[in-house]
Amino acid sequence: MKDNDLPLLSVCMITYNHEKFIRKAIEGVLRQKTNFKIELVISNDNSTDQTHQEIISATKDIPSHIKLAYYNQEENLGMVPNFTFSLESCKGKYIALCEGDDYWTDPLKLQKQIDFLEKNKDFVVCCHNATVIDENENIIKQKKQPRLNVDRIYSSQELKQGAWLLTLSIVFRNNSEIIKIFSNSESLFNSDMLLFSILGKYGKGYYMEDIQPAMYREHSGGVWSPRKNDKYYILWHRYQLEKVLQRLHYKDKNVFTFFQKRITDMNRELHRNLYLLDQKKRKELNKDYFKWNKIELVRIKFFLKNNLNYLKLKLFS
Description:
single chain, 317 residues, alpha/beta, Spore Coat Polysaccharide Biosynthesis Protein SpsA, Chain A, 3-stranded mixed β-sheet, 16% strand, glycosyltransferase, EC 2.4.-.-, Glycosyltransferase EpsE, transferase
């Protein structure tokens, strides 16, 4: 593909069993008014409902400035691998994110964000707010981030330390190094926060109040919705994420120290509440722990091996 044929921006849209919502997500992209080319990358993670048929129907008539790249996966990859696949498929200079159960409302959203990033090279990402709705379009919360009502800057360090940006609102620079680091990182549940932290290594972030809030949907089929009241599940996954982020920023003393304190506090909290978990959940958490902390497993194996050798010497000497 020639450089002048490349899109300036790619929209990364992952979906799984979103038959009731995917059309609105796609229409929010198709309504965008821009003076540049857009690539819409949709990766359907082998949905078992009518999501595929809805995508085909919703993308029959596409504006001339938008090119569709649709991937209907033959097997279920899982949320994070599907997200990684989609990111790696994006060809644009910039990437915007919107999952199949969310949607945009401002037709000038992408134009405003690209104009800002084109003029401000020291910024790597920009974002805006969202309204929380349920599966029937009823408003749950007018602003997902109610404290934000004016433009603001996120420092590079804030991003590294896990600044809370709304995934469906961001546009960021498509840096091959960023995508590579993300792709090679552990397959964590909180993949969006991992991405934001990586972005912080390359620049600052900017919140834009003048963009109409997007629609963030909470429903029973959502990734976090069934777990939002499970304190221990969320705490455990956040604990694992922050250990990964600490390793990622080991050269940055301030960020490393920040995560060291957080990890210590969270580890203490986990141990304090461990007795409340049933045996099945404990086994699940132990399995996850060793999956994400392979070095710990190596140490345990080394310890057991050496102690067994020591016992053998004692028994047979």
